[in-house]
TrEMBL record:
InterPro entries linked to this entry: EF-Tu_GTPase (IPR050055), EFTu-like_2 (IPR004161), P-loop_NTPase (IPR027417), SelB_WHD4 (IPR015191), T_Tr_GTP-bd_dom (IPR000795), Transl_B-barrel_sf (IPR009000), WH-like_DNA-bd_sf (IPR036388), WH_DNA-bd_sf (IPR036390)
Species this protein is from: Nonomuraea muscovyensis
Domain Tr-type G: start-end pairs: 3-98
Gene3D superfamilies documented for this protein: P-loop containing nucleotide triphosphate hydrolases, Translation factors, Winged helix-like DNA-binding domain superfamily/Winged helix DNA-binding domain
Keywords: Elongation factor, GTP-binding, Nucleotide-binding, Protein biosynthesis
Occurrences of domain Elongation factor SelB fourth winged-helix (ranges): 470-511
Pfam families to which the protein is assigned, alphabetical: GTP_EFTU (PF00009), GTP_EFTU_D2 (PF03144), WHD_3rd_SelB (PF09107)
Domain Translation elongation factor EFTu-like, residue spans: 124-191
Ranges in coiled-coil conformation: none
One GO term (biological process): selenocysteine incorporation
GO MF term set: GTP binding; GTPase activity; RNA binding; translation elongation factor activity
Protein name (record): Selenocysteine-specific elongation factor
One GO CC term on file: cytoplasm
Length: 524
C-alpha cells in the first residue's frame, strides 16, 4: 500500500487485476478504496489465469465490489498468459482506455514528484519521477521543494534514452546541478519557479468519509510525498490541514488523507492553498458555509471573493485563471467589495476633514490602513472626482457642503447593510429605519455620499463603477433581465440603475430591449 500510495498520484487511469482462481482479495479492496477516494474514473478490469478457473465468476465478483465506486462502469477483459487467450482483446481495450484519457498539457507548469535519488560517477545527483504535464529541457531552472533551492537540469533521460527535452506524460531521469545527494530525498518535488504555492496550510474537501472520523494527526499522500498533517474539521465535508513541512500545491489538486491509527482514508480536493486564519468564535462554521457554496473545482472568482484582493501572479501560484475587477497595477479586486470600499473612502475623507479642519486632506497611507488595503495604489484607484490625489493626500473641493453627522451615520448604516449585496437597495420603509428620510437622501446625494437613482431607490456611491465592471463581463448586448440577474437585484433597482448608467455614458442602447457597455479608448 505504501508503494501504491506513492505511485498513484500522477496516474490518470488504473487497471484492476484479479486472478480467476483466487478472486477478489483484501488487498484489492484496499487499492480500490484509494482509487475511489481519488475519484479516478478511468480504468479497466482484467481477470487473469482464465485457463485455471471459470473467469466469469471472478468477473461477477469484481463487478459487485466495483459497483457504487468511481470504477463501477469500467470495461472487463479475461486473459491467460499461458494460452494467450484474450491478450489481443486486452491490447485493444488498453488502446481504447488511453484514447479516452484527457491529453497532457505541454504548456502547464512542471511539478515532478521525486521517487528515486542516486548518484552517477562523474555526473552527480540524479532523480527520477513521472512527469504528468509540462515540459522539462536541459538547462531549465527548477525549484526543489520544500527547501526552495534553485537547481538546474544538467542532463535528461527518458526510458533510458538521452534526450534534450521531455513532455508529459513520461518517465524521466534528471541530472541536477545545485544540490547534493544528502539534500535530496524521495518525496521532494521539482517545480517551475513562481508557478506553485509552497504552503503548509490547506482548506480541502473530503471524499469517501461517511460518519467515520479521521484523527487529528494524519498522513497526507500526494505524489511520492507522505507529509504529516494536523486536521481541523470544518464540517462533515471540509477540513483545514496544517502540514509539518511545506509542499507545492494548486487549487484542485487531489490527494489521500490516511489515519495511521484507524487506517481509514479519505480523498482530498484542495480548495484553497493560502486560506485565511480561523480567528474568533464561529470562524470554522463560517468557513464551512463559504466552502459549501463553492463548485467542485473552484474558479478564480470564488478565490477572489474569499480573499477580496489578489495579484495576477497570485492566481498563477494557485493554478487558476485571473478573474475580477482590475483595480491598479497587478491587483484584481472583488467587484462587490470594490463598491463598498468606494463609499467607505468617501466617508473617511469627510470624517477626517471634520476632525482636522486646518489640514482636511486625508493621507493615502491612513486611508490604506483604515480600509485594510494591501497597496496604496488601490486607495488611489478608489479616488473618484470630485476628489483627487495630490502629494500623497486625498483632497476634496473646499466648497463641498458637509453632511450633518446624523445623515452621515445613516449613510454608513446603509453601506454596512449592503456590504455583501451592494445592489439590493432597501425599500422606503427600511431607508427611514436607517435614518435616511427623503430629505436626508437628497442631502446625501447632493454632496456625493450616495447614489439616488429614483424615488426610494438608493445605492452606495461605489455601486456605479462596480455595476459597469459586472455588466462588462456579460455577452454584449444584454437585456435588462440579464443585467438584473448578473447584479443580483430586482427590477425595481435594475431599471433606474441602467437608465442612470445610460445618462453617465457607461452604457448605450442598441435597440428597444438591449444595451451594451460603451468601450472607452485605451481601456479594455
Amino acid at each position: 500500500m505504501t508503494n501504491m500510495l506513492a505511485g498513484v498520484g500522477p496516474v490518470p487511469a488504473v487497471m484492476m487485476v484479479v486472478a480467476a482462481d483466487e478472486g477478489w482479495m483484501p488487498q484489492s479492496a484496499e487499492h480500490l478504496a484509494v482509487i475511489d477516494a481519488l475519484g479516478m474514473a478511468h480504468g479497466l478490469l482484467v481477470v487473469t489465469r482464465s485457463d485455471r478457473a471459470d473467469p466469469s465468476l471472478a468477473v461477477e465478483e469484481a463487478r459487485s465490489e466495483l459497483a457504487g465506486t468511481c470504477l463501477g462502469d469500467i470495461e472487463a477483459v479475461t486473459v491467460s498468459s499461458t494460452t494467450g487467450q484474450g491478450i489481443d482483446d486486452l491490447v485493444k481495450a488498453l488502446d481504447r482506455l488511453v484514447s479516452d484519457l484527457p491529453p497532457a498539457q505541454p504548456d502547464a507548469p512542471v511539478r515532478l514528484w521525486i521517487d528515486r535519488v542516486f548518484t552517477v560517477k562523474g555526473m552527480g545527483t540524479v532523480v527520477t519521477g513521472t512527469l504528468p504535464d509540462g515540459k522539462v529541457s536541459v538547462g531549465d531552472e527548477l525549484v526543489l521543494s520544500p527547501s526552495g533551492r534553485r537547481v538546474r537540469v544538467r542532463g535528461l533521460e527518458s526510458l533510458k534514452r538521452k534526450v534534450t527535452s521531455a513532455s508529459g506524460v513520461s518517465r524521466v531521469a534528471l541530472n541536477l546541478k545545485g544540490t547534493e545527494l544528502s539534500d535530496t530525498v524521495r518525496g521532494m518535488a521539482l517545480t517551475t519557479p513562481d508557478q506553485w504555492t509552497a504552503t503548509r496550510s490547506l482548506d480541502v474537501r473530503l471524499r469517501g468519509l461517511t460518519n467515520d472520523e479521521v484523527g487529528r494527526e494524519c498522513i497526507l499522500h500526494i505524489g511520492s510525498a507522505a507529509v504529516a498533517v494536523r486536521v481541523r474539521r470544518l464540517g462533515k465535508e471540509f477540513a483545514r490541514l496544517t502540514l509539518a513541512q511545506a509542499a507545492p500545491f494548486h487549487v484542485g489538486d487531489r490527494a489521500i488523507l490516511r489515519d495511521p491509527g484507524s487506517r481509514r482514508i479519505a480523498g482530498v480536493t484542495v480548495l484553497d492553498v493560502r486560506p485565511p486564519s480561523l480567528s474568533g468564535r464561529g470562524a470554522a462554521a463560517a468557513a464551512c458555509r463559504e466552502l459549501a457554496s463553492w463548485p467542485e473545482a473552484p474558479t478564480g472568482r470564488e478565490l477572489l471573493r474569499r480573499h477580496q484582493y489578489l495579484k495576477k501572479s497570485d492566481f498563477a501560484l494557485m493554478g487558476r485563471q485571473a478573474e475580477g475587477h482590475h483595480a491598479a497595477g497587478d491587483w484584481l479586486v472583488d467587484p462587490a467589495r470594490w463598491a463598498v470600499l468606494g463609499g467607505q473612502l468617501t466617508r473617511l475623507v469627510g470624517e477626517y476633514a471634520g476632525k482636522n479642519p486646518l489640514a482636511p486632506s486625508l493621507p493615502v497611507d491612513i486611508a490604506k490602513q483604515a480600509l485594510g488595503l494591501p497597496d496604496r495604489r488601490l486607495v488611489e484607484a478608489l479616488v473618484q472626482p470630485p476628489m483627487r490625489v495630490e502629494t500623497g493626500r486625498i483632497h476634496r473641493p473646499a466648497a463641498t457642503p458637509q453632511l450633518p453627522e446624523a445623515v452621515a451615520a445613516a449613510v454608513r448604516r446603509l453601506e454596512d447593510e449592503l456590504a455583501t449585496a451592494p445592489f439590493r437597495a432597501p425599500d422606503t420603509a427600511r431607508l427611514v429605519e436607517l435614518g435616511l428620510t427623503s430629505k436626508a437622501v437628497i442631502a446625501a446625494a447632493r454632496v456625493g455620499a450616495l447614489l439616488r437613482l429614483a424615488e426610494g431607490v438608493v445605492l452606495p456611491l461605489g455601486a456605479e463603477q462596480a455595476a459597469v465592471e459586472i455588466l462588462s463581463t456579460l455577452p454584449q448586448p444584454f437585456t435588462a433581465s440579464e443585467a438584473r440577474s448578473a447584479l443580483d437585484t430586482t427590477r425595481r433597482v435594475a431599471i433606474p440603475l441602467l437608465e442612470y448608467l445610460d445618462d453617465k455614458g457607461h452604457t448605450v442602447r442598441v435597440d428597444s430591449t438591449t444595451r451594451r457597455v460603451r468601450l472607452r479608448t485605451g481601456k479594455p
